[in-house]
Structure formats: structure tokens, C-alpha cells
Amino acid sequence: NVSSMQSLPLKYTAPVLAATAAGCFLNGYQCADVVCALFLVCVVASLPAIVHLFFQKRFFVHRISGLMYLVNFFTQCAMELYEIPVLEKYHRALVVSLAANGFLQAVIATCTFTFLPKTQGKVQGYYTDKRTMSYDFIMENVYFSGLLFFQAAYYAYPSFFQAIPPIEASLVFFPYYVYRPLFPKTSF
Q1: Buried-exposed string 114-140: b where 16+ CB fall within 10 A, e elsewhere
Q2: In a designed cystine with 103, which of 10, 86, 145, 169 is the match (CB 3.0 to 4.6 A)?
Q3: What is the dihedral of CA 53, 56, 60, 66, to 10 degrees?
Q4: What whole-number distance in Å separates Cα of residue 175 and Cα of residue 173?
């Protein structure tokens, strides 16, 4: 019952959902059906929080691109759980679009969160309640998400990159030695 789950503390919600999934599985439902049903219940139950999180004016572009990323991610998950004929022919494009969306999200973050502190090579301290992420960390995410974007594109469309050897070489061999120094390096 969704209304009774809303009154439960967060630490009790996951076991209730797990018990529900186990009960459905034992009653002959497929696991993917149970997972999708539980996901939809969670989305509907948290709809006010979702609207509050993604549709505020502050950092709107970053929030909307994050929502697009999540929609893309859950579309990928649905493709893995179910065989959806309409989406199967777009499987490679969806894989690349997820990585492209992540790269775009990182670039938007660097443009949005310019007020964050720079590290100047100091230890960040991410695992504390006294500090925030640094701008350097967000810049470094552009590098890593760019790597993932290229790798997804190369995996999905290798003939495109193999047809243009200079681009293939610059994106296969150079990222680790030529492009990496262009981005800050952070540590925990």
C-alpha cells in the first residue's frame, strides 16, 4: 500500500519493497515485472519531490539535463529487462546518447557551478559534512565523461572512427597523455 509506505521511515522502505518483490516473485510474476512495478510505485509516491527537485528556477538547465539523463538511463534499463522492438533498432544510438548526455551534464555543471572553490592541489575532503565539492572536481568530470562518451561511440559505431584514422588515433591513444594534463587532477 503506497500510502502506508509514505509514513514509514526511509530505512524501512527498502525492506518493505524487497519483501513485496519476493512475494510477487514467489507468486509467479517475472522479476522484471516486479522491478518495473516497484519503480513506478516509487516514482508516483515521490512525484511531489521530483517536481520540487527538477523544476526549480535555480540551476534550471543543469536540473533539466539531469532529468533527461535519468530518463535516458531508465530507458536503457527497460531495454535490458524487456525486449522492446521499437527501441531495439535504436539500441546503439541510445547507448551513445546516454554517454553524450553525461558529457553534456558535466559541461553544463562546469558552466553552472563556477562559484565552487578551487583546490590548488589540496586534498578535497569529500567524505565530510564540512566541505563541498570543488570546481576542479567538476572540471575533472568533464574529462572522464568525455572518455566514456568516446568509448560508447567507438563501441557502437567503430567503422565511423576506423574510416578516419587520425580521429581514431587521437581519441584512442592521446586522451591519457595529451588531453589529461589539460584537466585538473583531484583526490579524496
Answers
A1: eebeebeeeebeeeeeeeebbbbbbbb
A2: 145
A3: 10
A4: 6
CA distance 112 to 141: 14
Evaluate whether 61 touches 29 at the Cβ level (below 8 Å): no
Report the amino acid identity of residue 53: L
Taking Cα atoms as reference points, which of 128, 135, 127, 132 lies closest to residue 106? 135
pLDDT in tens, 99-136: 999 999 999 999 988 887 777 666 565 555 666 777 88
* Dihedral (CA of 86, 88, 93, 99) sign: positive
Torsion (CA) 40, 44, 49, 55 in degrees, nearest 10:
90
Is residue 165 within 8 A of residue 172, CB to CB? The reply is no
Q: Considering the entire predicted model, what is its pTM?
A: 0.69
In terms of Cα–Cα distance, which of 82, 132, 141 is closest to 108? 141
